[in-house]
Amino acid sequence: MDILLDFAATFAAQLQKPTLAFLIGGMVIAALGSQLTIPDPIYRFIVFMLLMTIGLRAGMEIREADLASMVLPGLFALVLGLAIVAAGAAVLTRLPGLKADDGYATAGLFGAVSASSLAAAMVVLDEEGIAYEAWAPALYPFMDLPALLAAIVLAGIARQRRSPGGARADIKAIVLDSLRGSAISALLLGMALGLITQPAGVVEDFYDPMFRGLLSILMLILGMEAWARLSELAKVAHWYALYASISPIIHGLAAFALGYVAHVATGFSPGGVVLLAVMAGSSSDISGPPTLRAGIPGANPSAYIGASTSIGTPVAIAVGISLYVALAQLVFDL
Q1: What is the distance between the alpha carbons of residues 277 and 130, in angstroms, rounded to a whole number?
Q2: What is the per-residue pLDDT for 167?
Q3: CA dihedral 316, 283, 185, 229 (to 10 degrees)
Q4: How far is it, in rounded angstroms, from Cα 143 to Cα 174?
């Protein structure tokens, strides 16, 4: 009962804060038929700025961190990415009326990580005064890359089985394309610069002051896109809507449990546990769609992108973050 009350209080509090309010605001004005649009280059610039900031902060912190303390959370992030894809594929490719390629792509997208959800969770933790390791966001690629790779490889294997003469999945090309993608490139570049240079001044004077403002605009864009994608999702099997509604919370709670193990074993912070849960409960909105579109060309984007954007991301941000914060306050007696 306490966890429900804490969740309700946290959720109500989040409604008053910009992150969730902008997301809901975007959905409302889209539902009312507003013609407001934000150009795609601005969206891409905002995503770049957020990921560069996260990468710079992580790199600066990794330089000072005890690397041994990162091993177990990093291993759990990798295991979670693979397990979410394996479980999702096992379910979605066996349900009646679903195309196998759509199931693999959807499982891959929900195994990968949403940069916007991660950034929103960091802001919430800062506002709640819940500490986390600054390197914790660097767990992103440990979960994101294996998930996307696993989905594409599984889809390739399935295609081979259906057609003995079909082409084999080129794993090396998939890895290189993922690393060269805009999201991973920005994050890894920021981490490298934070690790080998002294960017504290530019982070403090330029990147940090813009972080929350840019995030609020990104939430507005995601809200409008979520509403727009609902109509696309309605045209495909409703199993995806059900999966997108339930799986983010299941994934997040599984990650919270593993994060708690890391807390006991290595002292992983409560905030780090929440961020691990948010990453596992999110679905990729930046790196995933273009990677899966190229890696599983037979999949219908309306199924996997519609499920992620219209339902998965709002659930991960509006419900998931509040739930994990409330759970952390209860479990860790914050």
Answers
A1: 15
A2: 57
A3: -100
A4: 15
Helix (H) or strand (E) holding 10: helix 2-15
More confident residue, 224 or 166: 224
Its pTM stands at 0.79
3-state SS assignment for residue 66: coil
What one-character-per-residue DSSP string does 235-267 give?
A: TS-THHHHHHHHHHHHHHHHHHHHHHHHHHHH-
**Residues in CB range of 43: below 8 A, 6 or more apart:** 218, 221
CA–CA separation, 308 and 289 (whole Å): 10
pLDDT band at 284 (very low <50, low <70, confident <90, very high): confident
H-helix or E-strand spanning residue 104: helix 100-111
How far apart, in whole angstroms, are the C-alpha atoms of residue 89 and residue 170? Answer: 20
Residue pair 273/136 in contact by the 8 Å Cβ criterion: no
Mean pLDDT confidence for 71-96: 92
